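tl;dr need the bound structure. longer version: we got a ligand (zinc ion) that a collaborator sent over and nobodys looked at where it sits. i said id run it. heres the input, straight from their email, havent touched it
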Amino acid sequence: MVDMPPELRLQLVAAGVDHVDAVWVTHLHADHVHGADDLRIFRFRARKDMPVFCPEGSHHELLRRFPYIFDDAINPPPGSTIPQFRLYGYKGFEPQTIFGRTFLPLPTPHGPATVYGFRVGRLGYITDAKSLPPPTLEALEGVEILVLNALWLGNPHPTHFNVEEAVEAAQEVGADRTFLTHMTHEVGHQQLLDVLPPGVEPAYDGLTVEIPED
Ligand SMILES: [Zn+2]
Ligand SMILES: [Zn+2]
């Protein structure tokens, strides 16, 4: 699963997801991590720690925000449990093996922050980007499916792509299919279908895509 947004439980119920193996955290903005509590049930059912991959150095901030989850010093009374996530720090361009698949962390600028998408097989996943720096662009070469953030049409935002910028970035990557995510309610699904070029589509809740192997 990518990120743990605040409405996570509602999304998982709607999508019929009853199992999560691991979580990739792209960055620590509230809209990407403040649903962490909703993962507790998966760890509880599986009776093992939930692996959470996050940018190296972010452990301290996660601990500050969620001490009851990430503070190893907190021991629950016998018979009760805490979420018990196991944190793994990753660095840009250093591959991580997660359940036999290789994930390559791809840093992109997000205003003053850095956000880490990834490449796995022929899928590229980039969120909250404002630009795609050359090394990240290079690492995305040959992806067939690209997931990319876009906020709305026009009115450039200081830290996120608008739709026009996202389309430009998508064309630079050149994937067969690019799915736009992280949209606001300023744009409608049909409105985007009407203006997007071939190969770029708005994603939607419940969309499923097969990830091509490398
Ligand atoms: Zn963000
Ligand atoms: Zn965001």
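gonna send this back to them w/ a short note. Residues 29, 31-32, 128, 182 surround zinc ion (ligand 2) (CB under 6 Å).
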